[in-house]
Design brief:
The chain is of the alpha+beta class. The chain is built from three helices and five strands. It has a single domain, classed as RNA Cap, Translation Initiation Factor Eif4e (2-Layer Sandwich), CATH 3.30.760.10. The relative contact order is 0.21. This is EIF-4F 25 kDa subunit.
Amino acid sequence: MCLQIDKSRHHDLLDVIWLEVLLAVIGQQFGKYTADICGVVVNIRNKGSKISIWTTDCNNDESNCKIGEILKQKLTNPDIDSKIQRPIFDVLRYEDHQEVQNKSSSSVKAKHIITASD
């Protein structure tokens, strides 16, 4: 599950989102799906940053979608830093790691998409 952070909002969002993701994973807030998480990573780039949750099986649609839904709940929680302009994100995308590694263009087709507005 990955979340792109536009470079124009990078300075006010990156630390807040990264903290929420880390606390959720460390605190096992993904319930029975926590065991399916094998890593979290942040990529900081000039064009925009990306925070990703890596899962053990890209074909476990139930788990991957549920992890995305729980992450969405965490990031749309009104208790997160009130100084941050909403919405915090537009889209959460689930991408197959192998497809990302082998991509020939700048984007990869997402297996699952979760929007903030749903």
